[in-house]
Amino acid sequence: SSVLVRIVAVSVNAGDHHMLTGRPFLIRVAVGRRAIPGMDFSGVVHAVGSGVECNFSEGDEVFGTADTKCGAFAEYISVPATNLVRKPEKVTWEEAAALPTAGMTALQSLRTGRPVETGGRVLINGASSGVGTFAVQLAKLMGANVTGVCSTANVAMVRSLGADAVVDYKKESVEQAAAAAGERYDKIIDAVGRLGWHRLLKPKGSHVAVALPNPESECVPCSLCAIACSPWCCCCLSSSKSHMFMQEVRAADMDELAKMVADGQLRPVLGLRLVGISEVPDALAGHSETLGQGHRTGKTVVSLRGVHSESMERE
Within a 10 A sphere around the Cβ of 96, how many other Cβ atoms? Predict the structure, then answer.
């Protein structure tokens, strides 16, 4: 009932770290234990299951996600056809692997709550992260005036993505920068996880929490309540709202993102690039201290090109 894909490249997500560590423990209750981690990939269709109604056939170049089912950090993966889309010829394997979870999260979060309007003020916290780099570019494509928040080392990169203003949080707080500019925002996308955004929102503004303040805290309900009610317990009386966000797998969104990349409108920022399936454990270990905390630049991708010929030679 699925499509078997020979994997060419994979990318690392915050979810991979959480699935690997099983923290917060609520994840184990919700999705169980996964023997093989990894969500996002690009590759070539190896076989299509009998009875599967889809437009894919052997040899098609595709990309997609296993989502919480995981299993992408391997040579082959079997996924539902609805989790795949065709890879445009102009999009590289590594770019395609970087798109699914981070790209869909950025796109869907911008569509959550108050719509992004031409000239609207949008703040992206964690603008240099995988989700943040996509969010900055997508918000600009929607016509927004974008402010990105990142560290000193990534200011130039975030500006190159089109951000109209960049706040270096190592030099000043977001509150200080907003006060100096007399700025308040129509929408805030928080890809890092912090509290107290309501005071920076315009009336009827939206705060979308992509990350929790403490992603490995076992008290998930407390974190959710803190996001929704910060800084007041009577947040339901405020016209500005906070939204707890969870990305959904939508083939239409992945296809839309891929076409943007192929047309040169969207650029996946590939931070750390590794080669070989043997690099995956180190990639995960290297992320363990920071993944999901907003400290990685762009997307980490691992190319598996050549791994299949090596396997055949061993056999």
Answer: 30
Res 226 pLDDT > 70:
no
Cα 247–Cα 121–Cα 293 angle in degrees, nearest 5: 45
User: Which segment of 47-56, 194-203, 232-241 scores lowest on mean pLDDT?
Assistant: 232-241
pLDDT at 123 over 80: yes
Token pair 């503004």 in the structure block, residue: 205
Nearest partner of 147 among 178, 116, 171, 172, judged by Cα: 178
- What was the pLDDT predicted at 256? 97
Write the burial class of residue 229 (CB in 10 Å: 0-12 exposed, 13-18 middle, 19+ buried): middle
φ and ψ of 130, to 5 deg = -60, -50
Pick the closest to residue 81 from 56, 98, 58, 60 (CA basis): 56
Q: Using alpha carbons only, what angle is made at residue 170 by residues 165 and 174, rounded to the nearest 5 degrees?
A: 50
List helix spans (H) across the chain: 14-21, 26-31, 93-98, 100-110, 130-141, 155-160, 174-181, 220-229, 251-262, 280-287, 307-314
Which of residues 147 and 242 earns the better pLDDT score?
A: 147
Residue whose token pair is 């076992």: 218
Cis previous bond, 231, omega within 30 = yes
pLDDT tens figures, 234-288: 455 565 677 777 889 999 999 999 999 999 999 999 988 999 988 888 777 655 5
Return the closest-CA partner of residue 27 out of 198, 273, 208, 220.
220
> Apex CA 132: angle with CA 157 and CA 71, to 5°?
115
**197-220 pLDDT per residue, tens:** 788 999 989 999 887 655 555 455
Structure tokens at 243: 């939204």
